[in-house]
């Protein structure tokens, strides 16, 4: 850089010419100050983990914060909603479906409906209660021998493997899957099975009601449509005198007794309520069966792979990262599809498929949630 003797000087900045071009020459003291400030800013903001996900998380942090607060605030409301909606369906099933079954079905069909319906209801109620009331499990807050893999900056405690922090519960959860607003509880190591069983049995119950009430729904829908058509018909016009209407008007009108009007609808308030409740039941159960069925299948796929919802996201990122280095990521908690299910359901012998899966069971899950076997250490198949 060359300072032009003839160039204009404005305090500490000079305009110089080099190779026929004019440019601004900044003094060394200004340049060094700027370089120092730039380095300082970059040092303060530098983070090896910074990527677009981090930027997005930071930008959406206020949205997440608001959603967390609202979920925590309305947690009890969601639970009440589940109880009220489920109770209303059960009530309609008892008042409408059950009489129909008892009056029209063959005895063995009646027995099947009574047994299946009550077993399904029992399983839904039991697993929902256990899922909401069972704590998901928390890491120790005091000094212990539990091995940990990371540290929670919010709880200021060590985190064992598979443990994650829940922003809504504001605590760390063992083998956290997600925070469920419908349970007003986190789904973690100790209540994961209850949550999944609840989803399965509620889906089955909705499918059962939807299929059983299909014909009733069609009849009720047609009845409501007929009722609407009757209501839409214009009321009869009073007839005064006979004239051209002789032979058309009814005899009582001809005799000058009264005016002729459209007969009132034959539907009573009870009929209307009955038909509408059947439609409500069918629409609600069919919608829940589809939506919850999809969610249940998703969780079944995760369990088959030995992942939680959070680990699914983390493993996907790790898989992509290692793929760029021509390496293959292997989920360390995937012990094989069948073994994963046996571990998840707590099945240790054949009879447990009935006593622990098909009947209400409050058995604790395998392990304490602090320590985990890492693949491939557990290669041998589990007994059963
Ligand atoms: Zn935490
Ligand atoms: Zn939570």
Describe the structure concisely:
By secondary structure, the chain is mainly α. The chain has helices at residues 28-45, 52-59, 61-73, 75-104, 107-133, 192-212, 214-232, 251-254, 269-304, 309-323, 337-345, 352-358; strands at 9-10, 13-18, 21-25, 150-152, 157-159, 164-166, 171-173, 178-180, 185-187.
The gyration radius over C-alpha positions equals 35 Å
> In terms of structural class, how would the helical and strand content be classed?
mainly alpha
The side-by-side strand order for the widest beta sheet comes to 1-2-3
Question: For the terminal residues, how far apart are their CA atoms?
Answer: 82 Å
Number of strand segments: 9
Query: Considering DSSP H and I runs of 4 or more, what fraction of the residues is helical?
Result: 40-55%
Low-confidence spans: 241-249
- Major sheet characteristics: 3 strands, antiparallel
Q: What portion of residues belong to β-strands? A: 5-15%
Average of per-residue pLDDT values: 83
List of distinct ligands in this structure:
zinc ion
Shape verdict: extended
- Give the count of helical stretches: 12
**SSE order:** EEEHHHHHEEEEEEHHHHHHH
Structure description:
- There is one protein chain.
- The protein starts with 8 loop residues before the first strand and ends in a 26-residue tail after the last helix.
- With 384 residues, it is mainly alpha-helical.
- The strands form four sheets. The chain has a three-stranded antiparallel sheet, with no helix packed on it. Strands 4-5 form a two-stranded antiparallel ribbon.
- 54% of the residues lie in helices and 8% in strands.
- One zinc ion (ZN) binds at residues 166, 168-169, 179, 186.
